[in-house]
Amino acid sequence: MKKYIAIFLSLIITPAIANDGYNPMFGTGNENSIALYAAQGIGPGSMFKLVNPFLWEFEPMTNLMVQYSQPIDIFRLPSRMNVAFVQNFGYHHDHDLSFMAIGVSWDVALLNWRGFYFGIGVGPYMRDSRDRYVESRLVFGERVFIGKNIGNDWHIELFTQHFSNGDFTNINRGFNFTGLAIHYSF
After folding, report:
1. Residue 186, class by beta-carbon neighbours within 10 Å (0-12 exposed, 13-18 middle, 19+ buried)?
2. Which helix (H) or strand (E) holds 149?
3. Domain for residue 50, yes or no?
4. pLDDT tens column, 62-78
5. What is the CATH number of the domain that holds 164?
6. How far apart are the first and last CA of the chain?
7. Does the pLDDT of residue 161 top 80, yes or no?
8. Domain range holding 100?
9. b/e string for 37-51 if b means 16 or more Cβ within 10 A?
């Protein structure tokens, strides 16, 4: 556990290696981005599943998200502000875990090197239902991602995302996903 905390803290305090005014999540001169996220459920549990693939338990859930973003700076780090529509599809015995959500989030690129970037994000989402994983409609989404610029306008990201309510209710098993995103900036 101490090793994970040390790695996390070292990534947070490491300054982003970027040119002034350049945001690796948008490219040069772009002020908007549309993204499509597709992810597989990796089991309920804490957000530590985001960074430890040995804890992943693939389950019958698919998560799709459409996101609109604009560039911002957070503590002088290249960042983005997002509005997202989420659709989770649970199938087989997890059909009752399907939900739709809308939310806002903020992502920060902590590292930027030769077209690759690494970042984290967080934001609140409002779901249309309660279920046996999370009792509340309000959930918070945490994301960890690694991205790659493919030209100036296109970017791909490998990401993991966690949705839970921060133990505001008795039932808070959380949702965890891992997947791929494609971004078009303009």
Report:
1. exposed
2. strand 138-150
3. yes
4. 999 999 999 999 999 99
5. 2.40.160.20
6. 41
7. yes
8. 16-185
9. bebbbbbbbebebbe
**Tally of CB atoms within 10 A around 6:** 10
* 64 occurs within a structural domain: yes
Give per-residue pLDDT as tens, 108-133: 999 999 999 999 999 999 999 999 99
CB 63 within 8 A of CB 42: no
- Cβ atoms 37, 183 nearer than 8 A: no
pLDDT tens, position by position, 86-106? 999 999 888 899 999 999 999
Considering only CA atoms, which of 178, 91, 89, 97 is closest in space to residue 133? 97
List, in sequence order, every beta strand (DSSP E) within 31-115. 33-41, 61-74, 77-90, 99-113
How many domains is the chain partitioned into structurally?
Answer: 1
The CA distance from 8 to 4, in Å, is 6
143 forms beta bridges with: 121, 161
Is the pTM higher than 0.90? The answer reads no
Has residue 3 been placed in a domain?
no
Q: Locate tokens 């939900």: which residue? A: 99
Average pLDDT, the chain: 90
Q: How far apart are CA 164 and CA 177, in angstroms?
A: 12
Per DSSP, what are the bridge partners of residue 99?
A: 88
Tell me which residue has tokens 């459920």. 41
Give which of 114, 103, 113, 99 is closest to 143, Cα–Cα.
103
**Could you tell me if residue 10 is inside a domain?**
no
